[in-house]
Write a structure and sequence with these properties.
By secondary structure, the protein is mostly helical. Helices cover 32% and strands 0% of the residues. Helix 3 crosses helix 5.
Length: 130
């Protein structure tokens, strides 16, 4: 994220802030309130601000609350597990990927759309081929 921000002349924070989101999503997000009633995002927003170590028990309990988990949120990447839990709890009839704890599994979930609030995006660390 920092390399992306540097390359686009955005203040480097390493986070997807309003300026970064504007570039990533072609100004689809305007910095205003982003909440639009998307059920899984409602669930996600309830967990906003929690830290993997400082709030480990809360996050661990949340990630296991749908009957499964990838493990300790302080020890393993939890992004796909988090998405899976939010969707499973808020939209129980939605068919989930076969291996929902692998981020790449979400690349074919739903239907392709222009990135917006509630969309699931898959990023890569080194290259899309790894």
């Amino acid at each position: 994220m920092k390399a992306f921000q540097t390359a686009h002349g955005i203040t480097v924070s390493g986070l997807i802030d309003t300026d970064t989101a504007g570039v990533l999503f072609d100004d689809a997000l305007d910095g205003a309130a982003l909440h639009d009633g998307t059920p899984w995002m409602d669930k996600a927003q309830q967990m906003m601000g929690l830290h993997e170590s400082l709030h480990n028990r809360t996050l661990t309990d949340f990630l296991a609350s749908d009957g499964g988990t990838a493990g300790d949120p302080a020890a393993v990447p939890r992004c796909a597990d988090f998405v899976q839990t939010c969707i499973a709890l808020s939209m129980p009839d939605e068919p989930l990927p076969t291996i929902p704890y692998a981020s790449i599994a979400w690349a074919r979930f739903g239907r392709p759309i222009v990135p917006c609030f509630g969309a699931i995006l898959c990023f890569w660390r080194e290259s899309p081929d790894i």
